[in-house]
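Q: What changes when adenine is included in the input?
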Amino acid sequence: MTVDTFISGLPKAELHLHIEGTLEPELKFALARRNGIDLPYADEAALRAAYDFDDLPGFLAVYYEGMTVLRTEQDFYDLAAAYAAKAHSQNIRYAEIFFDPQAHTGRGVAFDTVLRGLTRALDDAERETGFRGRLVMCFLRDFQAEFAMATLVQSLPYKEWIIGVGLDSDEAGNPPLKFAEVFARARAEGFRLTMHCDVDQRNSTEHIRQVVEEIGVDRIDHGVNALEDPALIAAILERGLGLTVCPISNAHVTDGLKAEEIRALLDQGVKVTVNSDDPAYFPGYVNENLAALREPAALTDEDLLRLQRNAIEISWAAPAVREEFLAELAAYESAGH
Ligand code: ADE
Ligand code: ZN
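A: The predicted holo structure follows.
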């Protein structure tokens, strides 16, 4: 798939990206070597060939296994530094980046180690390239709410390094309401809220209803199944909620890019954004996701600009960052690219 020059030059913002999902095989091997871990694969190609999944639980098994090479602060630094460099190379100006602390503390890595490594890398990248990355802490929905609450409490001394909280991992049997108390506390502590409503799950529309009506999220990750219920779309529009969709990810864990659905959401005025989710596993960063979608979703240049305006509007960026990004977009548009 080719990325055209309009897409590659477009200033972009990304709101749905799991930092652990950016761990490319090359870095995985390098970290394994540094930490004295033997990977059960001959080389990077053999590792990639083992990425054999066609649904969310299948992906998650590979994803959690992959991240066990992350042990030290430097490992988390290197992971975030690699993503920041990639983002800069794609003209991504701003990203809100998920991390899964429980996937690390649960295997003995300190919360402080994770946070410090990621934060230091993003600070350095911002100074060196201007790329801005902000952290969003995700809770794992397939563990008990008590573990999420303990993690939230653990994060409080680091509040200024985290702009919001999310909910990810295996959705089956783990509805948003399981975490109502955790998210109420997070809101009270000043965090912004988002939750995954993965595509084509059991009870997808009920889960979307819960996040909109009961949890009161600020946006929804994925959420494409809202289209099945006009009342949900009406509620999303009324609240101005955005949907962070991830086409290449969808193609790997559902039955396609969901291009028609994304087109329909755009046409109905929903603030949709296009994101890469876990690009080391669903191959393609933001440019490739936009390129994959361009024809099947009939995206014009104007639509591509709108997707980026949507992203910054539904982001949690500071007003000055927002204005700077919108000015860059306006300049790009008026330069007639
Ligand atoms: N964790 C990382 N990527 C995820 C996704 N797409 N859905 C749910 N949990 C995830
Ligand atoms: Zn995701």
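Observations recorded in class: The mean pLDDT is 97.
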